Amino acid sequence: MKILIVRPLTRTAFELGGYCAKAFLQLGHEVMTFNFRYGHQSFLGKIRALPNQINLKKVIGAFKPKFLLVIKGDKIPLEMIIDIRKKFKTPLANYWIDDPLWIKISSQLSPFYDYFFTNDPQCVAAHKKAGCPNVNFLTFGCDPDLHRIVELSEDEKKKFGSEVCFTGAMVSQREKMLEALADFDLKIWWPSAIQYTDEDLKIKKRKIDSSSPLFLKFTGKDVWGEEMIKVFNASKICLNIHSQ
After folding, report:
1. What is the DSSP string of the chain?
2. What are the pLDDT digits (tens) for 62-119?
3. In whole angstroms, what is the distance from residue 205 CA to residue 242 CA?
4. Is the pLDDT of residue 41 over 70?
């Protein structure tokens, strides 16, 4: 089967799209990925379709996929999604990865897809209520070629290791929880800034204050892929903290 995966140029969703493409290839399908760039306004405000997004229709017409999978896709104008469904008659699915934090956004998108997959089981009912025709919970998995036990050098153990580690975007809720662990050998793999959203759901940042018990815990960089696996292997305890 020909499958087209549409993924945004944001790290988490971009990597997930790559993992999905790899899995479909291993299952024997023919796969193409299309990377779309964001418009100038976030979420469901007025979004101007960029040339890159408009080219999506040309790619669909040329590749002729039997299945279209969109990873998140909150920055694709809804008018374009509606037009793609009408013009190509190709089953269109969305793998949404930010519920329940962005359920107000995702529940406005889900009715426009033939299939909608949410990462949170408790949000299935919300999407059904919104009018989504087919919604299911789809949990995250792992890529055994990447997420594995690795042998580290002594220098790598020192560089990547700690008693407790956290990798991922720092938001205020996570900041509060990690402050309770500040007396431990803690490493936070993220630039020294706290991410938050304002009333218009725009993402903003504030620098970590020098008086914060977490000030010296930030590594100043985020880690992905092979580096993230080295951090997980080198650390005694790896934390996952939901934003909410």
Report:
1. -EEEEEEESSHHHHHHHHHHHHHHHHTT-EEEEEEEPP-SS-TTS--PPPHHHHHHHHHHHHH--SEEEEES-TTS-HHHHHHHHHHH---EEEEE--TTTTHHHHHHHGGGSSEEEES-GGGHHHHHHHT-SSEEE------TTTSS-----HHHHHHH--SEEEES--BHHHHHHHHTTTTS-EEEES-SEEEEE-TT--EEEEEPPTTSTTTTTB-SS---HHHHHHHHHH-SEEE-----
2. 999 999 999 998 888 888 899 999 999 999 999 999 999 889 999 999 999 999 999 9
3. 18
4. no
Average pLDDT, the chain: 89
Confidence of residue 39 (pLDDT cuts 50, 70, 90): low
Q: What is the pLDDT of residue 43?
A: 43
CB 90 within 8 A of CB 60: yes
Between the alpha carbon of residue 100 and those of residues 78, 104, 124, 174, the distances in Å are 21, 8, 10, 16
Q: In whole angstroms, how far apart are CA 42 and each of 34, 47, 128, 198, 200? A: 20, 7, 24, 12, 9
Q: Tens digits of per-residue pLDDT, 86-96? A: 999 999 999 99
